[in-house]
Every structure is written in C-alpha cells, then in structure tokens.
Specification:
The chain has 298 residues and is α/β, with parallel strands linked by helices. The chain contains 12 helices and 8 strands. Bound molecules: 3-hydroxy-3-methylglutaryl-coenzyme A (HMG) and magnesium ion. Its EC number is 4.1.3.4.
C-alpha cells in the first residue's frame, strides 16, 4: 500500500538554478523561495554555500537567505561542502544543511574535488557543528543509480556511503539519481537494500528526469515505502558536473501524480503551476513540466 502522505522538498531555487549560465538576480531568487514556501512546501532548498568559482550562480546565497520572508515551520536548506560553507550557513540562519557526497569515486572528484573517504572526513566536523547548533543535517548521495563517468554503480557502494552518512548523524539521506539513468526496477532494488540499513521514513528520492524515468521511479519508491521526494518547479535544472543531465523531476508533475493517487502533499498545485510560469519567464526558459504546461493552457 502507498503512504498516506509524502513530503515534497522543493529544490528548484538550488538544484534548478545552479546551472543557469545567465546570472539570475537575487530578487528573483528571493521571490521564488518565498512563493514556494507560501504554496505549502515544508522544505525549500534555498541556496548553496559552495565555492563561487565552481558555481557562480549560487554566489549570492547569503543575500538570498537574508532577503526571504521566513515562514514559521518551513525548513530552508542550504548546501555546505565544508566548514567554510557551514560558517556561512550558520550566519545565514539555515534550518538544515546538506552535505553532499557520491557513491562513485569519479563523480566525487569532479563535483567536490576529493575522494569519497576525504569527503566524509570533511563532512564530519560540519555535521558535528550543525548538531551543536541545533541545525538539521541531510546527506545527499549522488550517482546512487548510475554515474556519468563510471557507469553502473554497485548497490554496495551506495550502502557504504549511506552507512557513513548515518554515522555522521544525518537526519535524512537522499538517494540521488544525478543523471536520471535509473529505472523502476533498479530504483526498487537499491531502495530495498538501503531501507535495511537506514530508516525508511528518513530516506528521500532525488530523481533527475534525463531519461524520462523520474515519475516512474517515484512510483517505484512509493512502493518501497519512501515518503520524501525532491522536485524542481517547472523541471528547472541540470548538473554542472554531469554533462547532458536535465533537471529534477518537475514538481507540478509530482503533485499531479500524488493528487491522483490520493497521497497528501500539503502543497497547492495551482500555486505551483503559477510559480513555474513565473520562474520560466523570469529566466527565459521553456517550462518543461508537462502538467504545468497543460494546466497553463487551460
Ligand atoms: P577546492 O578547490 O578543492 O577547495 O574545492 P579549497 O578548500 O581548496 O578552496 C578553493 C577556493 O574555494 C578557496 O578560495 C576557498 O576559499 C573557496 P581562494 O583561496 O582560491 O580564493 N571555498 C569556498 N568559498 C565559498 N564557500 C565555500 C568554499 N569552500 C572553498 N564553502 C569545493 C572544493 C567543495 C569547495 C568545491 O569543489 C565546490 O565548491 N564544489 C561545488 C560543487 C557543487 O556545488 N555542485 C553542485 C551541487 S551538488 C548536486 O547538484 C547534486 C545533488 O543535487 C544530488 C544529485 O542530483 O546527485 C545534491
Ligand atoms: Mg540534483
């Protein structure tokens, strides 16, 4: 049976925008985050405190966090690869930090310039400092269903990183299909293994839609009892370190699916459709949400 309710983490302001070549103004980013929070998302990934040389689009994270209108109860998350990022996140009053690793050595090197083992050593003080300051810690594991450099990724590699992230005290762990190569069969296999070593209700599915499999993978994950999913409004995005990768699954499409299944999200689809239209126009991008486009055409 399916879960009664799910949590949708809206990652558009971060994962969706990080790869945009043209700088998106801080005001647009702030408006996007505020409108998403108002639409009912419990968790909005708002910024990244990474090196501005690596990801220039996220350079204004502090200004974004300072400019948003905090909704009581909404969790605003930010990415923090190291202590420098953590200090910035603390100053910005982030509710949750995201340490991000990978199940593939090659991807770890390309994305964060260190091995998996080095990344865990780097995350350890970050996670500890977050706990000391009462900040939630989420661990994200890229390439859990495949890697652009290595190809197939064994389940054992995913499990290894899940266990290391768990040992760091992660409140939540994201199983990420960075390049959208996963299919429902693989998704179920990986999640069936991961749920044996980490509590199911604290695992999330982060699916990119490069091969058009993301919604099917979400349904597969629901059948494994997963209750947290990441999505990006209007399907914004792409990964700077994964050539050809498209954005996350579009939030509007996920909401349409959940509404049809009778699974509660607490998020208003019509508002999200309007936000998808707003941000697509603001950055001059085609809205790639199928449900969003259909509902806008009505
Ligand atoms: P590095 O070059 O090895 O680090 O990069 P470093 O410590 O040697 O520092 C180099 C320079 O960066 C220094 O500046 C530091 O001060 C600065 P310089 O002295 O040259 O002027 N620096 C920073 N500046 C601001 N904030 C910081 C910070 N850290 C260092 N936190 C590093 C290592 C991790 C920093 C770098 O590789 C990096 O920033 N990578 C960013 C990767 C990234 O953001 N990727 C996209 C997000 S992950 C993702 O999208 C996947 C996900 O969606 C899940 C999925 O789909 O798979 C989460
Ligand atoms: Mg991603």
């Amino acid at each position: 049976s399916l879960p009664r309710a799910v949590k949708i983490v809206e990652v558009g302001p971060r994962d969706g925008l990080q790869n945009e070549k043209q700088f998106v103004s801080t005001d647009v980013k702030i408006a996007l985050v505020d409108r998403l929070a108002a639409a009912g998302f419990q968790n909005v990934e708002a910024a990244s405190f990474v090196s501005p040389k690596w990801v220039p689009q996220m350079a204004d994270g502090a200004e974004v966090m300072a400019g948003i209108a905090r909704r009581p109860g909404t969790i605003y998350s930010v990415l923090t690869p190291n202590m420098k990022g953590f200090e910035a996140a603390l100053a910005a009053r982030a509710d949750e930090i995201v340490i991000f690793g990978a199940a593939s050595e090659a991807f770890s090197q390309k994305n964060i310039n260190c091995s998996i083992a080095e990344s865990i050593a780097r995350f350890e003080p970050v996670a500890r400092a977050a706990k000391e300051n009462g900040i939630r810690v989420r661990g994200s594991i890229s390439c859990s269903l495949g890697c652009p450099y290595q190809g197939d990724v064994p389940v054992t590699s995913v499990l290894d990183v899940v266990q290391r992230m768990a040992a760091l005290g992660c409140d939540e762990i994201d199983i990420a299909d960075t390049i959208g190569v996963g299919t429902p069969k693989r998704t179920r296999e990986v999640l069936a293994s991961v749920t044996k070593v980490f509590p199911r209700e604290r695992l999330s599915g982060h699916f990119h839609d490069t091969y058009g499999q993301a919604l099917a993978n979400i349904y597969a994950a629901l059948l494994e009892g997963i209750e947290i999913f990441h999505a990006s409004v209007a399907g914004l995005g792409g990964c700077p370190y994964a050539k050809g990768a498209t954005g996350n699954v579009a939030t509007e499409d996920v909401l349409y699916l959940m509404n049809g299944l009778g699974v509660e999200t607490g998020v208003d689809l019509d508002q999200v459709v309007a936000i998808g239209d707003f941000i697509s126009n603001a950055i001059g991008r085609t809205n790639v949400s199928r449900a969003g486009r259909a509902l806008l055409a009505k």
